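Teaching assistant's notes for section 4

Start the section by putting this record on the projector. Ask students to predict, before seeing the second block, whether Putative nuclease HARBI1 will look compact or extended. Collect guesses on the board.
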Amino acid sequence: MIYKSICRRPSTDMLRREIRMRRYRQFLLLSTELQDPADPLSKYTTQEFQNIYRLSKELFCELLNMIQGDLERSDNRGRPLPAVYQLLIALHFYCSGSYQKVVGDQHGLQVSQPTVCRTIHRVSEALAKRYSQFVTFPSVAEAADVHTKFYEVAQFPNVIGAIDCIHMRISNPGGAMAEQCKNSKGWYSVNCQVVVGPDLRILTAIVRWGGSVPDWQIYENSRLKQVLEQGEYGHLVGDSAYQCQRYLLTPVINPVTPAEKCYNRAHSSTRRKVKRVFGMVKRRFQCTSQELRSNPKTSCAIILSCFALHNFALERQGPPDDSEALYAPDDSPQDRFIGDDDPEGESYRQHIIYEWFSHDLSGVSYQTDDGMCKTQGW
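Reveal the predicted structure now:
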C-alpha cells in the first residue's frame, strides 16, 4: 500500500504541474492585447511588405476578402486570431519556411506553436478549397492561342502544356503510409504533377500521390489524360519519366539523325518552362524547399496553396525578377519510364520529327541550358 502511494505521487505532481502551466499559458494569451488588425499593413513600407509576404498590400487585401469568411469564427471563444493575422502568419510561413514558433512571434501576438499550426492548416484548407479559382486549364477555344505562344519558344508545334513532376519533402508519416511516401532516393515526399503554360502559369496540378508512385502512373490515372485523348487540345511535352504517347511526347533517348537532335533541342527548350516554374515556386515559397513537418493531408493543402498563390501573384503582379525566376536545384528522383513502347506514340513522334525537324531550319533560335537564346543552324 505504501509502495503504491509512493508510485502515484510523481504522476500526480506532474499532472498538477501541467495544469498550472496550461493555466499560465491561457493567462498569457488572454492578457495579450491584440494590435489593430490594420496595423501590419502600415507597419511596413510597400516594398518591405512585398519582400516578406511576396504580395503587394493591395493583393493581400484582395486575397483576404476571398477567404475571410472561412477564417472568421462566429463566436469569440478562446480569443481567436483575426482573419488578417491568420493570413499573415500563413503567408509568412509559406514564404520563409521558418519554424512555426518563430513565425508566431513575428507579429507581436506571442502566438504559440500549436496555434500557428492550426492557423496554417485553416488558411491552407481555405485556399485549397478555392484552388479552381486560381488554376484553370485552357478551353478548346483558347488552345490555338496556347499553341502559338509555345511555338514561339522553340518552334515546337501543337503544344498545350509542359508536364513534369516534382517531389516535395515531408516528414515521415509513419505507419503504412510511410512506404507509400518513400521515394527511390530514400526520403519521404509527395510527388506532384504539374502542367505549365507558355506564360509560366500553372494549368493543372495533382497533389495527392506519395513519393513511391512514378510519374507515368500519376498521368495514367489522371483525368487530364482522358481530356487530351478527346483530340481537341494538342499534346503535352514531358521528360523520359513518361511513356511516349499520342498526346504526350517525350525526347528521343539516343538521337542519331540531325532531325532527331533538332527535335530534342526544341523539346528541351519547350519543356524548360515547367522547370522554371518549379524554381519560381521554390524561391518564392521557401517552405516548399524544405521538409514539411505537418501531416500528409495538411502538407498537400500547403503545396496546393503555394501553386494557387503562384498563379494569383503572376496574373496580377506579372513575372518575378530574374533573380527569383532562376532554376532552383532539383534533387528529385529522375527515373526513366521502364515498360513497353506505345506504337501509336512512337509513330506520332516520328511524324512530328519528319514534318517539322527534318528540313533546313537555319536561323531558328532556341534556348540553351544556361538560359540564353542562341541561333543554331539545324
